[in-house]
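Consortium newsletter contribution from the modelling node. Members have asked for a concrete example of what our holo predictions look like. Here is one, prepared for the adenosine-5'-diphosphate complex that several groups have been discussing at recent meetings.
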Amino acid sequence: MAPAAPAKKPARKTAAKTASTAAGKPAPRSDVERRLLSLGLETPIDFALHVPLRFEDETRNLPIASLQPGMTAQVEGEILRSEVIQRPRRQLTAVIADETGELGLRWLNFYPSQQRQVTPGARLRARGEIRGGLFGREIVHPRMTRADAPMPTALTPVYPSTEGLPQSVLRKAVARALQQVELRDTLPQAVLDRYGLMPFEPALRALHQPPPGGADDFLHERSDPAWQRIKFDELLAQQLSLAAARAARRDKRAETLPLDTRRQGLVRRLYQALPFQLTDAQMRVVEEISADLSRNYPMHRLLQGDVGSGKTVVAALAAAQAIACGAQVALMAPTEILAEQHFRKLGDWLAPLGVTVAWLTGSLSPRQRRAALAAAADGSAQLIVGTQAIIQEHVVFHRLGLMIVDEQHRFGVGQRLALSRKGEGEGGPLAPHQLHMSATPIPRTLAMTFFADLDVSVIDALPPGRTPIVTKLVAESRRDQVVELVAQEVRQGRQAYWVCPLVEESEALQLQTAVDTCETLRQVLPDLRIGLVHGKLPQAEKAQVMKDFHAAELDLLVATTVIEVGVDVPRASLMVIEHAERFGLAQLHQLRGRVGRGSAESVCVLLYQAPLGMVARERLRAMFETNDGFEIARRDLAQRGPGEFLGTRQSGLALLRFADIETDTELAEQAREAAAWLRRDHPEVVQAHLTRWLRGREDFLRT
Ligand code: ADP
Ligand code: MG
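And here is the predicted structure:
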């Protein structure tokens, strides 16, 4: 068995045990401990690996005359005067002077003790960023110490912290850990030599106590040998864990589901029934999947393709191949609307060919539910489509050969874990093949190097005959014109979506906005048939509205973001997104992808409320400038970091703390090579390294 995998469950139990006493009562923890724990700091090695964000130079004082706005500096001098002023709001101001000049100090919030500290005549040190204020240079919220306190001799580290946890506490805890912990090198000398890495202990110590001078550059560039070493170790741990997961998968057995090439075979008949020809890009991924299905270990493949690239039909062909071999297929989608749409579409394609398709979601009546569960269990349902209800424990399949997950990035970590457990075949001898689909394009290197144990297929072209979507940015003040545009579009026999604003604070408010918007639009566009769909609508009504819109019995669909993913109505050619500035970039791209699915020229109107903040402006600009999902993903990554892609937002656990997925690809490649080498020649190193770096967090890498 692969080294990393068995540690998984026991490691968790141990963690749970340390958090509670033998009697099962939670162990008392101090506030500080709790806060440290929230930063992932528990054992000495955790602290040792908690490296500073930046450093402060408290080792020297600068002459006040030499200060330039923008620099961070420490000065020492005498307080000349101080006062509390009331305008524009209550604040404390003071002036400190040395032989060379004067510097302003200002506190917008302050304690009486701070006010007392700056009495005229006191000799103090002040530290902080120099600003060029209206009345000369100043520091806002300076950190103050008495001038007779000893001067530190080393740079002072500033650690990533959390509310209510002072730097002084962190510094002490880290310093203590660095004395206690044994920082033995997990890597053999041969590895260090080959990749030119410095030893672990000096690298880590240097990160906590860098040589004086240039420390901030050192931290920002992160190209120093000490950094390279830490990043390499982190990436190596990740690669080792992935390799273990991959090996574990190859050790598992899956049913071989080879392609039936007979003329009357199901797959062949499905091709014939399709209203279109597959694109070359689709053919290529279909072949990759088909080959995987014919192997005797489980497929674990991510099918990536921009919104509208035609992933559903690829899934249908994979399902047909499995069903033709007598296996069952389950397809899971993140929303009921999407699941329902798949149920209908796959039903339309496959039912006429004699395939039984069942439907399983949380909102079925008890009777329907029993029927669906029975059909899954006795094998009479060959394809089961549904929401996450499909992976609940009591759902038993007769002979599950293939599990398809659409919009897989939308599922939380917990759901993905449940899925991977179902995917392990629940103790049976055979595990199902897994096909994950995602329209959120993950940069390829990211997917290969940082994502779980997945092979990746990419549909890199859209079906032919699509006219690119035109994106328009329109200020809220010109809303009337947008309403007119909707009317025009409908007059030409087309359909439109109107997406209501996101209201982060309150779901109830969001709902109300949708209801109000729909009402107003009905008043100003009395000739139009307008439907409303939102998350709180009972499933049957939701389904009915979507069905009416599909059947063109509605002209305009007012919706919340429930239509964000997957919805496919080719006749809809206009998308209006209200308060577009409130949405994230990936979300806007997904929403826009609901149009441009037919041959008509499609328009996406981003209605925004001026004035725009910087970030919102960048986002809308990106939407305006490109339709390319990969480019959008790249910009999104630049703006927000990778958390979203990896689904770590829900888990709150960043996978990579040190390495940078965009710039450290070469290092990641080396780590990948080293992982293979270590697994082959130094298996004893593998476990030691994983224990140091992951401590039972492998689960997150595997999902
Ligand atoms: P997504 O990849 O976003 O899930 P869909 O599978 O919903 O995309 O496909 C988008 C639309 O394109 C659907 O209406 C689908 O029927 C259609 N489509 C898929 N493949 C082709 C093709 N090769 N030629 C023409 N239309 C296609
Ligand atoms: Mg889709």
